[in-house]
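Changelog note: in this version the structure field was regenerated for every chain. One regenerated record is shown below for reference.
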Amino acid sequence: MSDRNPFDPALFKADAVSAETTAINNAIIELLDGADDNWDIGVAEARARRDRGEGPFPPVEKSKRAITRTIPGKGGDIELRIIAPDSPKGVYLHLHGGGWVFGSADGQDPLLERIADQTGLAAVSVEYRLAPEHPYPAGPDDCETAAVWLAKNAQAEFGTSLLTIGGESAGAHLAAVTLLRMRDRHGFSGFSGANLVFGAFDLRWSPSARAYGNDRNLVLRERDLTKFEECFLPKGVDAADPDISPLFADLTGMPPALFSVGTDDALLDDSLFMHARWAAAGNQADLAIYPGGAHGFIAFPGELALSATLRIERFLTGIVG
């Protein structure tokens, strides 16, 4: 499905969307139309409901294999949630999604367990500070700190110095920002691959984001993007700053990357544009497009989520060798 020419117009047509994907999307819309709006009930209550498995995303079973490691950070200690196979072949630094406002390091344990088992990578998920309590640059600072710690300690902690990085949505944004900070602030270009899943790379908001509107409540609306921006970015900052919108960065020397996105995602253009700029900077860049995939689609069990997960595993396994 997604291994076809990613710029094949057929991938973007209505008849490319499977009946299963249509049913999943309709179920999400129906659920959200009948639920309280996150921004009406407030961030704290919305977080509590997500933690209880309420809302569009299925409840997540917590891994019994996970351990927590604490490292010092600029704003206090940072927790790293680690799910590792025996004798790791490398490390996958994972940054969770949630619009820089929601989410947690333990919110995608099944996915990280699977990555650990299928690729041999130790998954290290960062409990970075969230907005609005901790706006930019708090979250990016914590992710940078975790990356610096891994660059210095991966060999001693995991028996390997091979590093990869990735995340979903805001996590993909943070992964790109972290790679740029590691290169520019620390002279470190040791990450061997980047798994960037339906990321936000232009916080001025790309054409697809601006055009998405609010009529269909399919996980991520224009209203949500506006609210996330209000929470994450202090007033007066320039959203075109490459540390905020990595689409505008000099992308020279970035590692091989896989960009994954669905066609029914407000952030579709972000992945299309960032993939093009990544490749134009001379980096290996793969693009996987999933017909009808909503924002966050890999969290909803079905053929589309499985296809994307398998593609991600192939990419990461190829990095490990």
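Spot check on this record: The beta strands are 67-73, 76-83, 90-95, 121-126, 163-168, 191-197, 257-264, 285-294. The chain has ten helices and eight strands.
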